[in-house]
Amino acid sequence: MTMGHLGARVLLAPMEGLLDHTLRDMLTRVGGVDLCVSEFIRVTNTVLPRRAFIRVAPELLNNSRTVAGVPVRVQLLGSDPDYLAANAAALAELQPAGIDLNFGCPAKTVNQHRGGAVLLDEPELVGQIVAAVRRAVPAHIPVSAKMRLGFNDDSRAEDCALAIEAAGASDLVVHARTKAHGYRPPAYWDRIADLRQHVRLPMVANGEIWTLADALRCREVTGCERLMIGRGMVADPGLALAITQHDALFDSRLTGEGVTWSHIVVLMRLFWQGISLRVAPRHRAGRLKQWLNYLRRVYPEAQEAFDQLRLMHDPAQIAQWLDAQALPAA
């Protein structure tokens, strides 16, 4: 059963440098995720080759779906409507499950090059970008957008949301913080509720959803049934499944006990196999420790694992350690 059948959806967020193809694969295997969005593909003053899209979203070679069958929208980032439209048209030939436009990235380097959240100070340009991409892409391919509440403040949030709606976007994800807020709590969910008073565009709430209780409260405050979750899913791979099970008519038979550490170990071994194919040896240990660092929020065993691996950098040693975790206790 998918979230779509329940009238609500859980989306897996794009997170540059963290939530890439390999981790999307792991998290969607657990269940509960209805849709993913890839990390951004930066567009400047050229039309990218086919391989550039596939490098970030190799799911394009699998009908734009993860191994578990979850659709993946591909995200573009830039500030030139014409070049974004041309790249969207090229991407559309690969039949993505959708094209998403990034108006939320808070990274200083990105913003300095007029990409991501800095565009929220220019609602007219935001609308021009969405309209140009919508015109360039076949009607059957959704064009969505992801925005923050603003750059330095949220005074133009309504203007940006209205511009995105008027330009023909299929739906809008709102990360309930400004660029200036970064990722510091809280997320200002009430401002998403404000935006919903001005636009009829289907809206997805994003920001500070770490637990099932957070998800339910976010829905209550924002009025959004659809949620996008990033770091919360990295820390708790069973979170989307818990939300899905809660929504399934509150059927107590479906609640279970969450995803066990034994299941996480299986996923970590698969994750290691995946990054070993795609990541340079010197960076592999860092990728695994990065995930473990998030898992420590939920799993006590992850703290022990993190401590054991803290000073370990050799891929062969780490592979050996992962194999040992899968062995039954003596």
Give the secondary structure arrangement, pairings included.
Blueprint (H helix, E strand, L loop, with lengths): L9 E3 L8 H10 L4 E8 L7 H7 L15 E6 L3 H12 L6 E5 L4 H5 L10 H14 L6 E6 L8 H10 L5 E4 L13 H8 L6 E4 L5 H11 L3 E4 L1 H5 L3 H9 L13 H18 L2 H15 L4 H10 L5 H11 L5
Parallel strand pairs: 1-2, 1-8, 2-3, 3-4, 4-5, 5-6, 6-7, 7-8
Summarize the structure.
With 330 residues, the protein is of the alpha/beta class. The protein has helices at 21-30, 50-56, 81-92, 108-112, 123-136, 157-166, 189-196, 212-222, 231-235, 239-247, 261-278, 281-295, 300-309, 315-325; strands spanning 10-12, 35-42, 72-77, 99-103, 143-148, 172-175, 203-206, 226-229. The chain folds into two domains: 3-254, TIM Barrel; 261-325, Dihydrouridine synthase, C-terminal recognition domain (Bacteriocin As-48, Chain A, Up-down Bundle), CATH 1.20.225.30.
CATH architecture of the largest domain: Alpha-Beta Barrel
Which consecutive residue ranges, at least 5 long each, have pLDDT under 50? 1-8, 251-256
The SS-based structural class is alpha/beta
Helix content: 40-55%
Radius of gyration computed on alpha carbons: 20 Å
Largest sheet: 8 strands, parallel, barrel
The domain tally reads: 2
CATH class of the largest domain: Alpha Beta
Run of helices and strands: EHEHEHEHHEHEHEHEHHHHHH
The CATH topology of the largest domain, please?
TIM Barrel
Cα separation of the termini: 39 Å
Number of strands: 8
Number of helical segments with 4 or more residues: 14
CATH superfamily membership of the largest domain? Aldolase class I
Shape: globular
Which strand order do you get reading across the main beta sheet? 1-2-3-4-5-6-7-8
